[in-house]
Amino acid sequence: MSAVARSLFGRRARLRWIHLILGGALAMPYVLVGSVVIGPVIGSADVFGSLPLQLASFAVGLPLAAVTSLFPLTRPLESAAVRWLCGVDTDRLALGPARTRGEKGRTAAWFTLHLGFGGIIAGMSLALPPFAATLIVLPVLSGLLGSRLGLPEVFDHAWVLALAPVAGAVGLVALAGCAAGCGALLARWAPLLLGPTPRERLAAAEARAADLAVRNRLARELHDCVGHALSAVTLQASAARRVLDSDPEFVREALAAIEDTTRRTVGELDSVLGVLREGDAPGTAPAPTLAADLDGLLRRTRAGGQRVSATVDADPEALPPLLSREAYRIVQEGLSNALKHAGERAAVDVRIAVADGELEITVENPVTGPAPSRAGGGHGLRGIADRARLLGGTATAGPAVTAAGETAAPRPGSTSTAGPAAPRTWRLHARLPMKGPV
Asked: How many CB atoms lie within 10 A of CB 161?
């Protein structure tokens, strides 16, 4: 019983009732225009004094409403009203103006239905409640005023007078039922008539995909540049603190590396965040590449005490700019992982070579304790895999040599291994086509 009451008088039903009343209000100008047409044709000066003439005026006005629905703002306004008052999800509605013939036809059909149902429910809402209220209080008024009410003869029967309040209550419930039914029908038809077409859905999906791609790219750039900088600066500051009194020259080199790292990272961060600041010009700092900053990246990493050996059997200057930039980020993330997991002064081996038309990047470092693992981590390795995939290449990360000395092939996307026989060497290996799909 409560479910029925909610469907008739609940908040959703009341909002849909308001939506219908708004449709009735919008229909009034068209009804007035229809009455101007019907009056001279019928030869009646009092069109609104006759219910049939009112309905005829209403029927003439609805086609006019369909024509005016071609106004560009009709569909956005109707979609907004349906979203707020009828409870239809935003993604099921088209928020832009109707452009094609089919879209305009569906908008015209919706507008006609909204005004048609709204005009009927609005008229019932104006006429039925006063009449029903009169029936409900009629026995009381009859007892107080008697014959002075001038009631029809049918009310002379006691049983008719006794049923009058019931009839009034039933009339109000019937009005609520009609409003709820019409509101439910309009809510059901709204996605069909106001919803996006396949072309619009495709355009929206492409826009969301483009936005997601930009967000993912920005997330990768922020993770790589800021994450590497923080790892490097932390290691450099820690090493400088330990030898502050015994090796001033090393401290000076570490502080210079910290200054260089933070200055470069601020420039990169400004360049990345410039994309997010709508209306602002993007940062002017160029994205780092192997050709521009590989030596600097290795030097800053070594300044923290890390022993990094690099073998470069490729000409960074000859690499395409996009490939050089993505390869730089892969090397940077490999060094960041080594800084986090290899331990202090551990040996890190970086190899960059060209083979079979592909740029091969390998970063190997020992692992002290369990293999790399952290709750919610692995974003850097996923970022490397994304970069390689976008260039048409592959990337693997995982154990290279087990504790027993046996070779274990890296697994794509692998981020952790645990147990007493944890691998002691971690290998990152990426293969990037020299001429990728990008």
From this structure: 17
